Structures
1.
Amino acid sequence: MKRHLTKRNLFILLIAIATGYFYSKDGSITTSVVSTATSFALPLALAAMVGIMCERTGIVNIGIEGTLLTSAFVAFFVSSMTHNILIGLTASVAIGSLLGLLLAVMSVSWKMDQIIAGTIINILATGLTSFLYVQGRTIPATFPEYDIPKLMDIPFFGQVLFMHGPLFYFGLFVILSLYVALFKTTWGLRSRAVGEHPSSADTAGVSVLRLRYINVTIAGAIGGLTGSFLSLELVGSFERGFTAGKGFTALALMIFGRWNPLGALAAAMFFGMTQAYANQLMIDQVVQIPTQFITILPYILTIIVLAISAGKVRAPAAEGQPYEKENA
Amino acid sequence: MSALLEITGLTKQFPGVLANDNISLTVKAGEVVALLGENGAGKSTLVKAVFGLIKPDKGEIKISGNTMHYGDTAGVIAAGVGMVHQHFQLVPVMSVTENIVLGDEPRKAFFINRKAARAQVIALSERYGLQVDPDAIIEDLPVGMQQRVEILKALRKDVKLLILDEPTAVLTPQEIDELLIVIRTLAKSGVGIVLITHKLHEVMAVADRVLVLRGGKAIGFTSPAQSDEAGLAQMMVGRSVVLRVDKTPAKPGKPALEVVGLQVLDDRKLLSVKGVDLVVHHGEILGVAGVEGNGQRELVEAICGMRHRIAGQVHVDGAETKDLHPHAIHAGGISHIPEDREKHGLVSSYSIADNLVLNQFDVEPFAKGWVRNISHVNTNADDVVAKFDIRTPSAQNLASSLSGGNKQKVVVARELSEDLKVLVAAQPTRGVDVGSIEFIHNQLIAARDRGTAVLLVSAELDEILSLSDRVAVMSGGKIVAIVDSKDADRNYIGRLMAGLKE
Amino acid sequence: MTQSKKKSFDVGTWVIPLIAVIIAMVIAGIMMKFQGADPFRAYKTLFMTSFGSVKGFSATLGKATPLVLAGLAVTIGLRAGLFNIGAQGQLVSGALGTAWAGYTLTGLPAYIHLPIAILFGIFFGGLVGLIAGALKAYRGVHEVITTIMLNSIIMGLSDYLVVYHFREPGQLLTRTREVLPSARLPFVFSLPFGFFIAIALAAVAWWIMANTTSGFRFETVGRNKFAAWYAGISVKRTLMTAMMISGGIAGLGGAVETLGVTYRFEPAFNAGLGFDGITIALLGRAHPLGIIPGAILIGGMRAGASNMQFVAGVATELVDLLMALILFFVTAPLVTRFFKNSGSKSVTGGWGA
């Protein structure tokens, strides 16, 4: 079909070919690079799911960054204080949902400007985490890597996909289920209707406000999960400004992926690969690049990606508008 | 058998307006009742009360003999009341099937049962004889077809009483005829129908009984057999109205506006104006008739510099105007009453005074160089408010405080305040009360008599026929015919609008 | 003119921010209590340090100077319908540009060197703003994402430039040389001169917004882009100009901070100033003059924070928390609605014809 020949899919093809080429030259390094890329990509993709869930029902969530930061902080510090990373995980999902709920209150009930509402969440997150931050804390352990038997023995894909921690698998599961839920279930149909044309949904007996509340809160929980993944599985620590703009990059990936969970996942993978390759080039001393350029690479990519795709892709039509009941 | 709908003594007071004053109405199965009235007569308040969306101060609403209460919209729907909205309640990017089943989807566990949904839609469309393609995407369908989907959506819920809110506003005369047949068929099958409208000939054609509302009051019941269009109009407006506008024959002068080979894309980047040639002379009104969405909006926007012309030129008094330069085009002599006054015509959070100079704020006498002359802006506003009878306590009030008719007067006043060579008026009386319509019509004719060339675009065929000196019919992005208004025949124009060859 | 006049006489304009500040302080106080600190002691130290003496007040105004400018930058954006959350990056670029001009251009008299150094700051801040403005106007990329990304990019780039090219010779710290005396801003009556520049600029901005055709263009684009386009205003150009001016003002903030306070560029110096600008702009209801009290308040908190940490043992990050809470409560409609002149708004909105 013609609609599959998008720029995004060409990107994916290009990356697949490049990876295949590198793999044929040096299998083990390529595998480890791609595996690193996958670890980079997953939190970005998960964070993009937060955006997709909100925007598909018509709420712009610019507060993803703050949600990630707060939940990563809570995950780390609660784990540290209770010496139990499961409690940390639970707490961070709870705080994520709470922030989602807060966004819902501000944007759905109070009908605030959603960009400002999200910014408030971001600034609150920065204020809270930097005030409450204490240096020198540690957690008992990160979530351990669990290699899935048999699957891990598949060459290349085994290491890339099946040698990760439990939150990685769960995150991947969340992304795939969101895709199915959004396009195959009644919840998905209703959510999308609410995001595209809320009064149609309303007149068909779908409660716009309730669905928006539910979805934005669940999205917050996914944000909490993402924060946990970062501080309890991927990195194992927390510092001020820990999330470094991932929440904003996620928004770009959401747009690049056309508000489709799989599209965003692919876009995140493209991001992860770029970074992993750049790192590898530096480690191999193939090129001499100051570290600063590696650091700013994802930000520049985000802007480029948006400049390419924004305006050309079609956002959910009711995005950003509070819903007012009008006629019968 | 009890009546399907029985409203007794319904009264609703809004701050400053008595929206419904002791209104009673019964509708029986198989009957078509028309609710006739102007904008603001209280029709929509009545319907909202039926759906439990507003709380009446007094009165009772019974559906099939059961009293309904405020807030129980679901109960009203369950009792078999369906509604076809004026603004279609359809999700443009979804399919016909998805739209029809939305909210009550056939399912397998959490998943939508697409096969069953599709089968339901096909069965439904066969049962009522309304053909639709279940897999088509709504936004790809013509408006008449979209309305069919909207009707099917309402019928799916075993509707006993169907309320249609201004259903013909966007249809061609032929589509209107089809719709009226559908209404009759539904009534014959036992559905009670309430038709809300302000168009007299529809009432005459289809209604069994008519309830006329004016200013919140029930003026009375009548029927097509007992009354005629003029009688209905008098009941609706409260005085005898001139259905024809008084005007002297035009004295056309030199060509003022010349459009040559114009081609324009719409928002979806599809060619929607496919090579239009037009000439409007000084001192004449050229009306463009057509079903909405046939390129009129794009034509107007391209002429006025708000939309890119991919081919062709627009001349004013022989001088070519620059593409995409609303400012220069305005300065060159075209003024423009935009179709969407809320979006383009006004800044609602600005005062009336600022809105009256919206496109002249940077020229003398409203500005001297870089600095605005605010006292001039204000004296100008006081003059215009008085001259155009804009109902407001002060010109310093925000534009958002005005009623629709008065907002439109602000826009019209601004565009007519300078005597320009060409006036492009798009849907100049949409959503405006009768008093303001008359006023605006007279202003357009006065402008013509002063020698302005007027290009009038309207979806109301009556408006076109009564104001224009010549009528151009637009269909499928082209001007398919231009006729002298003396020779214009409703039916003939209707066929052209529908895209049929003679 | 008419709108802004009405706004400044609205009771809510003054009362709401005040209440927001009080509620925020109470909540932050409770959190301090939980941390085992004494909130009264902390607040007392905080405000006595910054407002209790001439010297302290001078320091407060010094801290407030870049904040007025950052707040003004965000305000100008908001007026044109743009949410510039990248004042931070623009301010940093301005600071670096100014510092470079301040120490490399030698042999110039102060009356030439100082303005040139300031212009460098405005130029680089404006340039960064322009990038975001152009991306918005021509590619439809939302300015919130671009400006936040540009913040990080500028952070990395300036770090790179200072580490590899502009580092003070023989210095281990990542910082530039000091600007020459000829480019430093003087003190007037022991108050920093930059503060007067900032206040004057705010006043000029207010006058321009209220009385000129350019101001009207900005406002119209900010309130209704479509009507602006219809009225013959070039929306793209206005958006770009607004972002450029907004960035230029933020850049000036960096310049003034560099030439009046820090005398050199060090990446850590300007942390958070641009973000404070967001809070200040919203606290001042996006009114060019309304931002001044908020800037002084927050400047005072910043000025007194380290003494508060020393005396009461509360982390300086308390100020970040306070600002976040203030921002939340000032925008929260629960507070806002309470003071809105009720009654004038009809319940039914646009009912009727």
Note: The longest strand of chain C covers residues 187-188.
2.
Amino acid sequence: MLHDASILFQIAGIGIIVALIHTILKQMGKEEIAQFATLVGFIIVLLIVVNSLSDLFQQIKSVFLFQG
Amino acid sequence: MDILHIVTLGIVASVLYLILKDLHGSFAFFVVLITSVIILFFVIQQLGAIISLLQSLGERANIDNMYIRTILKIIGIAYIAELGANITKDAGLASVAAKIELAGKVFILLLAIPIITAVIDAILGFLPAV
């Protein structure tokens, strides 16, 4: 999962798209839906980041702490 | 992964950060976080070879396995605490970062207790019994 920079572009792309959606929905006057869309995008990105963070911690554990 | 890849990754991440910072602050922070995670991941993958060399050297020198294991644990704690403290500092929570560093130091000292005890025992063994 962590083998190249594609995950970086993924997150940046989600961020740009969510900001776009937020702006458009705000222009249309649907403030609540805009907030909701931002929240959903945030949760998706959080999922990706937490997954890779757990990968890193497992790696550190297996290298330094002897599978502890 | 080459050093060139890592440097390129850092530059790309800074460009993406600059773009995202004005659009949406929290996603920019996620970009920073994931960059640190990726780079540290590859560094630690390479570090495995060095660790195994260290272990084989220690076995050859007949050092107690417990000491090497403690030292490796301390290095691991230092890496994790450093990552957490730096990320937290980037997010603007300097006080939480200081607490994370404090926790890292305390846990390192806690792990070093058996070694300190062994050193004190050795010193006491040198002293003549009064």
Note: Residues 64-130 of chain B form one domain.
